[in-house]
Specification:
47% helix; alpha/beta; binds nicotinamide-adenine-dinucleotide; globular; eight-stranded mixed β-sheet
């Protein structure tokens, strides 16, 4: 399928980033938010990031204006009716996503591909809320979407080759790196990274090292570009704990469970960079 028009549902951290990447690549985008105010705020943020690129000489002002001109925002989901692909990036809750996919199926063209950006839910379970699960796939972008090259393209149990290929084709046109995979808990990166980061946090207490020392050990001894404590602070301790809990629930492997130290930090509001304090102060 020749994808020209993309719908993005939810213009939060991920959805706004995905919408930005798509308009920069020349796609027409309709972004849906729950209120006009949130839609305008997201569009303003996207324009701001594109203007920064103009200041840095990475884009011309005309390119920025053309890209911004390809973005429309809406509150009514029906505005996504003529999209070739819809990417969902709403809150990480199965009920909310299933309800949304039911509505999208009713409103969108029968040949439109419906994708979810879920991190830890089952794409197959989301697809099961529709009567056309064959056109549902996962497109798992990484945060921040404009900077991170990877998109995991997730084949659910009943996804067709056509739906997967349409998603892979879009990822290529976005200039990103696609890794196709099957629908398993955590897909590829989180399946590896989440237990690994949990191990790192447990080592803090077991080896009695400071976050600074652990980060120094992993950057200097293992060649990591960023230490694990810096990375968890960047991801958000609440986001990491939530993803760990979701993986633990599905796989029942002790390493997937969030370490009590991280749960306590989350409960105390120490969420990392976004709250101003996590392992480090910002
Ligand atoms: N933040 C990350 O690091 C990251 C990375 C990859 C994937 N994801 C996934 O992307 C999705 C969005 O995450 P985010 O970090 O952008 O969240 P966010 O909180 O920044 O944005 C959530 C969006 O969902 C909308 N929303 C909330 N409840 C809704 C509902 N009931 N119906 C419709 N819209 C609703 C909000 O208006 C907002 O636009 C989640 O599934 C998350 O797991 C997040």
């Amino acid at each position: 399928m020749d994808v020209r028009r993309i719908g993005v549902v939810g213009l939060g951290a991920m959805g706004a980033g995905i919408a930005q990447v798509a308009i920069e690549a020349g796609f027409e985008v309709v972004g849906r938010e729950v209120s006009d105010e949130l839609g305008a705020k997201a569009a303003g943020r996207i324009r701001h990031f594109l203007s920064r690129k103009v200041e840095k000489g990475q884009r011309t002002a005309a390119e920025r204006d053309a890209a911004v001109g390809r973005l429309a925002t809406a509150t009514d989901l029906a505005e996504l009716a003529d999209c070739d692909l819809v990417i969902e990036a709403i809150v990480e809750e199965l009920d909310a996503k299933q309800e949304l996919f039911g509505e999208l199926e009713r409103l969108c063209r029968a040949d439109a591909v419906l994708a979810t950006n879920t991190s830890a839910l089952s794409v197959t379970e989301i697809a099961a809320a529709t009567s056309s699960p064959e056109r549902v796939v996962g497109m798992h972008f990484f945060n921040p979407a404009p900077l991170m090259p990877l998109v995991e393209v997730v084949r659910a149990e009943l996804s067709t080759d056509e739906a997967v290929e349409a998603a892979l084709g879009v990822v290529e046109r976005l200039g990103k790196v696609a890794v196709p995979c099957h629908d398993t808990p955590g897909f590829v990166v989180n399946r590896v990274l989440i237990p690994l980061l949990n191990d790192c946090v447990r080592v803090l207490d077991e080896a009695r090292v400071t976050p600074e020392s652990l980060d120094a050990a992993m950057t200097n001894g293992a060649g990591w570009p960023m230490g694990p404590c810096t990375l968890v602070d960047l991801v958000g301790i609440d986001v990491h704990v939530h993803a760990s809990e979701a993986l633990y629930e599905k796989l029942r492997e002790p390493r997937m469970a969030p370490p009590p130290r991280l749960v306590a930090m989350r409960n105390a509001g120490l969420l990392g960079r976004k709250s101003g304090r996590g392992f480090y102060a910002y």
